[in-house]
Amino acid sequence: MDIQRFVNRRNRFFDQMADGVAIFTSWPVQRRNADQDQAYRPDSDLYFLTGFEEQESAAILIKDGEFRRFVLFVRPRDPEQEQWVGFRAGVDGAVKDFAADQAYPIDEFESRLPDFLDKKANLYYEFGRHPEMDTKIFGAIEELKSGIRAGQFGPWTVTDPRTILWRMRQIKDDYDVKDLQKAADATAAGFLAAMKAVLPGMSERELASVVEFEFKRNGSQRVGFETICAAGNNGTILHYISNDAVIGPNDLVLLDAGAEVDMISADITRTFPASGKFTPIQKRVYEWVLKAQLAAIEAVKPGATYDEVSRAALEVLVDGLIDLGALEGTRDEIIETGAYRKYYMHRIGHWLGSDVHDVGVYHVNGKSITLEPGMVITIEPGLYFMDQPDTPEPLRAIGIRIEDDVLVVPGGRKILTSVVPKTVAEVEAFMADAGSWWRNLAPISVEK
Fold first, then answer.
1. Which of 31, 129, 239, 363 is catalytic?
2. Roughly what angle, to the nearest 10 degrees, separates helices 204-217 and 174-197?
3. Is 256 a catalytic residue?
4. CA distance 374 to 385
5. Residue 358 appears among annotated catalytic residues
6. Pick the catalytic residue: 204, 262, 403, 405?
7. Does the active-site annotation cover 204?
8. Over the stretch 297-325, which tens digit does the pLDDT of each residue have?
9. Catalytic residue among 357, 362, 387, 396
10. Could you say which of 3.90.230.10, 3.10.120.10, 3.90.1720.10, 1.10.10.10 is the CATH number of the domain covering 171-439?
């Protein structure tokens, strides 16, 4: 790990915060059942500023003019516990390996907190996410204010640090882009495997397991979100995660998944025929969705707005709905009335980064945000025709979404996930040797 990147981030945060204290805490550990905890995933903001991944930890940043200090509270070393569940950095490691100016055991956080808050006018803290920690911090502040006659006081102003962090996280630096490309490459490996592995009669869950297996062996520590592997009518359910149906011979498979690598997540969606060949009506719908995606991608560039990118896709999708016989009227009428929402009910995409639905605003004071170099956005239009009586019969049980991860660069855009086939010709050619992934499976981490 290059710890300097986290030092740089803290310096940027220090530059933008007022004199005072900023506190960031880890997520509470969640119990799964009788004596097992849920798999732990570090808090994105805490990790972004520190690189520290262990549970039961907290960071305090202190600024007073030119004085700046970074303090970590961590679990102390415990040989017996480490024998059972793994290595801890400990207090010494927090200083040596994570560049903390000071470090203390996490059990001392509450007792030392008043010293860090005393006579500090400003506090940066995300209230409402960690109730137990909220109580400790509020308690310390009120206790200090009760000593006002003795010259003590706690912060008078509380600011959400996300007013600074969201902007920092939204504009990716070279480190971020490199990590995001690694996540995109691992995700792409999963999709390429799935397209080579799918066979009619498989379960959705088995195909999803192929995807996640490839994620792991290509460097992913975990998935960025629950994998969506939806066959047939299930593909019309936007966030279908049951993955418990059988893939039929004439089904389309809508696969939406993302590998997380080093706390950065990618996000790809592809829709492909289980048989390896689109039916004529599947092909018609697919090509309208693809045309919409390409129009939106072309609209991504510095100076364009999020709404302009969204509108570029929407106009094509509405033209497609008219052509397919799903809606009647003119493009403008259908957009004005919102009639298209029956078949396209989500936005064009979302920011991508430390979280799969990454932080950052889309509108400010009612106006769409302007795209800037360093932003990463998913472009994922879709059409969803549920198998129900009021859906035109030829379109029933067809759900199609196509998604890529797009980096805004000077003069235009860069598609980070372009290696995964998406034109009809590319998809069918790539899937021509059905089931070949199973025949060619071999370790990739063993040197030949």
1. 239
2. 140
3. yes
4. 35
5. no
6. 403
7. no
8. 999 999 999 999 999 999 999 999 999 99
9. 357
10. 3.90.230.10
